[in-house]
Design brief:
single chain; alpha+beta; Immunoglobulin-like; 4-stranded antiparallel beta sheet; 1 helix; 8 strands
């Protein structure tokens, strides 16, 4: 009887470990295709995968923590919507070729004031 209980405990631990591993792999895969852009007044903070690959579909989440409206525009690829302060929005993008992609905020003068940069696409 004690052997059966011990076997059941070991089996439960193994099943729990397998389920946790599968769940972790799924969340890592989702995170690998996610770009989060936090916009403050005249600055972008971008959290992205280590390598952004061409031909891969990414979900971009724009979060506006500034006092003015902002967006991110991946020049020549796709632009997000203008977001009101305190709001967020999501869109998808596929970078079709390798290289540096410039990004800016489309609100006049925001790029000049620091809301601009380049994203390396491999």
């Amino acid at each position: 009887m004690k052997k059966r209980i011990g076997l059941l405990v070991v089996l439960a631990l193994v099943v729990t470990g397998v389920v946790a591993t599968v769940a972790s792999a799924r969340s890592n895969a989702a995170a690998a295709n996610t770009i989060t852009v936090t916009m403050t007044d005249f600055h972008f903070k971008i959290v992205k995968p280590k390598v952004v690959k061409h031909g891969v579909k990414y979900t971009v989440t724009e979060i506006n923590k500034g006092n003015a409206i902002h967006n991110i525009d991946f020049q020549g690829v796709k632009a997000g919507k203008l977001i009101q302060p305190g709001k967020k929005a999501t869109f998808t993008v596929v970078f079709k070729k390798k290289g540096k992609v410039q990004y800016i905020c489309d609100v006049p003068r925001h790029a000049e004031l620091g809301m601009a940069g380049f994203l390396a696409v491999k």
